Structure formats: C-alpha cells, structure tokens
C-alpha cells in the first residue's frame, strides 16, 4: 500500500518541477476523464438507467475529457517513468547534474509494484516446501520485514511529498518540519531488526 505514496510523490514532484500552474490544471482537469469513464460504464452495464440525473458539471466535464486521449493524466505514454526521469529544476547531484528519481522508480516503485499486482513475489510468506501441508502465513517473519519496509517508505515519501508540495507553492519546507520528518526516517531505519545470518539461526 505504501506504493501509493510513491505515485503521489512522483506526481507532486512533476507538477512542482516546472510549468506548475499548467501541470496542476491538467492534473485537476483529469477528473473529467474519470467522469467520462463512469458515463461509459453506466451506458454499458446499466443501459436501463440512461435518464439518471447528471451533476451540474456534467456537460463541462464531458467537453474537458476530450483533451485527454489516453489513461495518463499527463498525456504521456508511460508517464510514471517519464515523471521520475525528468531532470529536477531545483536539485543537482554531486556531479553538478540535475537530480532524477531514477532510483525511486527502479527500486521501491518496482518492488512495491509486486504487491500491488499480486505477483508470485508477493506471496513469499505463504510458501511451503513441496509435499508439506499448505498453511496460510507460514513464513510470517517475512511479512514483519516488509512491514518495516512499508513504514520506512511511508516516512521517506511523505518527507519528499512535503518538500515538493512546498516548492509548488513557491516556499521552502519549514525547517522544524524538515528536522522532524528526517528524524522520523532515521528512527524507522534504526528500528528495523537486523536479518540474522544462517549461522545465527
């Protein structure tokens, strides 16, 4: 579930990075595409409800929806990667190059996606050896480790969301909040139990 925060972070960063007013408007206007989607579903699955009362914004939303051709609010195919790899307008790395969120896309976004899409990798806590009776949550220690990872993701991406959101409002994150969020991240990182080696098990 913490992957949702990564999605939010990448969107907030993209909006605040450049052309903020236009990008923010596009993000809000995408609601019209969602409204259009509901209209199509009603027409398909509930055809006998064609005369449902429409909200006051219906006509405007249906017109606005025409500007979106796909299912990405940015209008860019593969928008998550594009948002992550866009060069930062604010930060540079140790080599003086604009920062990208390549690591966040390659590692935590990809890893947490395994749980969102319920791939076999997300079922490790239920695995058993061939021939043994199946038991739900037979490997609960693995879930405990993922719990710490999810808390760490939550802390770190809330921190990043706040930074980018304040940038989008032409402001800096207040120092006391920056310190508090940084301390929260450090506490979560320190609290994660150290994985025992096979010799210790």
Structural class: mainly alpha
Let me know the average pLDDT.
Answer: 88
Tally of DSSP helical segments: 8
Low-confidence blocks of residues? 197-201
Strands, total number: 0
Specify the biggest β-sheet: none
- How much helix, percentage-wise, in residues? 55-70%
Cα(first) to Cα(last) distance is: 30 Å
Question: Could you spell the SSE succession in H and E letters?
Answer: HHHHHHHH
Principal-axis shape equals: flat
Alpha-carbon Rg, integer: 22 Å
Please indicate the percent range of residues in DSSP E strands (runs of 2 or more).
under 5%
Keywords:
201 residues; mainly alpha; flat; disordered C terminus
Can you describe what's shown?
This protein is mainly α and 201 residues long. The protein contains eight helices and no strands. Helix 1 crosses helix 2 and helix 3 packs across helix 4. 14% of the residues are buried. The C terminus is likely disordered.
Compose a concise summary of this entry:
The chain has 201 residues and is mainly α. It contains eight helices and no strands.
Which helices and strands appear, and what pairs or packs with what?
Layout: H1 3-17, H2 20-29, H3 31-45, H4 58-64, H5 79-85, H6 102-116, H7 140-168, H8 175-191
Helix pairs in contact: 1-2, 1-7, 3-4, 7-8
